[in-house]
Amino acid sequence: MKYSRVTEAFEELEETQKNLEKTSILAKLFQESEDELEEVVLLTTGTPFPAWKNMDLGVSSKTLVKIISKATGRTEDEVEQAWKEKGDLGLAAEKMVEKKTQQRLFTGELTVEKVVDRLEKVAEMEASGISQSVDQDKKQKELAELISSAEPREARYTARIIINNLRLGVGEGTIRDALAEAFFDGEHAEDIQKAYDFTNDFGEVAEACKEGLESVEELELVLGRPIKSMLAKKVETIEEGFEEVGKPAAIDYKYDGMRAQIHVVDGDVTVFTRRLENVTEQFPDAVKAVEENINADNCIIDTELVGYDPEDGGMIPFQKLSKRIKRKYEIQKLKKEIPVEVRPFDLIYLDEPILERPYSKRWKKLEEIVEEEKESVRLADHRETSNEEEVSEMQQQSLSDGHEGIMMKSLESEYRPGNRVGYMVKLKPVMETLDLAIVGAKWSEGRRSDWLGRLFLGCYDEEKDEYKEVGKMATGLTDEQFQEITGKLKPLITEEDGRKVEVRPEIIVEAEYEEIQKSPNYSSGYALRFPRMKRFREDKEQADTLQRIKKLYQDQS
Ligand code: AMP
Question: What spacing in Å lies between the alpha carbon of 398 and ligand 1's midpoint?
Answer without folding.
Answer: 13
